[in-house]
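Incident log, structure service

09:12 report received: a user says their structure output differs between two submissions of the same chain.
09:20 pulled the input from the user's history:
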Amino acid sequence: MKRANFTGVREFVFQGFSDFQEYQLTLFLVFFVLYILTLAGNVIIVTIIRIDHHLHTPMYFFLSVLSTSETFYSLVIIPRMLGSLVGLSQTISLECCGMQLYFFLGFGITNCLLLAVMGYDRYVAICNPLRYSVIMNWRVCAILASSVCATGFLLSLVQAVSIFRLPMKKQNHTLVSKFTFQGFSNFHEHQLTLFVVFLVLYILTLAGNVIIVTIISRDRHLHTPMYFFLSMLSASETVYTLVIIPKMLFNLIGLSQPISLAGCATQMFFFITLAINNCFLLTAMGYDRYVAICNPLRYSIIMNKRVCLQLVWGACSIGLIVAMIQVSAVFRLPFCTAKVAHFFCDIRPVMKLSCIDTTANEILTLIISVLVILIPMSLVFISYILIISTILKIASAEGRKKAFATCASHITVVVIHYGCASIAYLKPKSENTRDEDQLISVTYTVITPLLNPVVYTLRNKEVKEALKEVLS
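09:34 re-ran on a clean worker, output below:
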């Protein structure tokens, strides 16, 4: 532990071009002319593209969005810079500085991503001209533009919050460099029993997931998109449990050692990455079932190997990005207490150890939770509405039964997985006691990973037959 004294301010002063005192009027005139030209040029581009129907194409649509973003980007910075050059106030409050940083980063990142999207548009136009109008339709363009803006401002929010959560007023904090898990200390007399139960469940989870991955890799009949996603989910669940359960088991038999800040951040990073990866893999599996039932004639074309790999890579990428954002936001906080009221480095229990108010971090956590839980859950829900409406149109009862059977295992895992995640991360932070929170955590860290192989082996005829062949 070390003692740190923080002396902060409520406003900042820009030094600007103070080293060029004698040239400030010249600089003002140069920058002012450039600023007027920038505004005029971007306004002209947006106006022309809007008026001329011949320019209503994806390329010019992205150009107009870029020009609009560039206009606001310059508005955030240049007027204040011009004011400081002519001797107007150079001070800025903490709040205004935070807003300026937020919009500067938001529009800056948006511009970078828009240029990448425009590059993709040119790639499609030149390398795939016959399908250009199909690939780059207006819905795709709108999704790309809105996604770019949302990504830019979400990353900007994270960066601004991380910086302005740093202590900026005089405080004395005793900062800790290690954490200890309280774990199941309230159940001291039952800890050996809990150890045995969790160890058995953990061994069954590892064995079940390894068996599923092995069966799918060896049996060529299971080399289909559905089982490819299942093998990816099983592999992800295996690593997910390895991140949390071994340390929890050591804690139950008194062998737990303190965990460093870096170790805690690493555990949280992999936990968040794999948990979000699992959420989006389940969504990909729901989409796979939707295509198989609602569009069976084109199933092999739509769900080709490249698409399956892209969906898996997309799920993993989202997990990595969100984990980096969340972990960086949490571990920018100063911590004054060393005892984590949990059995692993979960987000909320770690944030409770901070010396300062964590309302902004709580809001960020809620926003991320809504995005990575409710959006995938809604997509799965929509998929199953379409699936059920298609199944009900099947004439034969046997056909309907077979179609429902292909979805039963997936929907069972989805309900339990998203249900536990929603209770854990979308409920008010003070609604449950510590023991209730830990019980919910045990469900999604110990029970749910075991549920996946159990449900898919007991309810799936193809997997059971493949298992018999492998064993024989």
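09:41 both user submissions now match this output. Likely a transient worker issue. Closing.
09:42 reviewer note: The mean pLDDT is 81. The first helix runs from residue 24 to 51.
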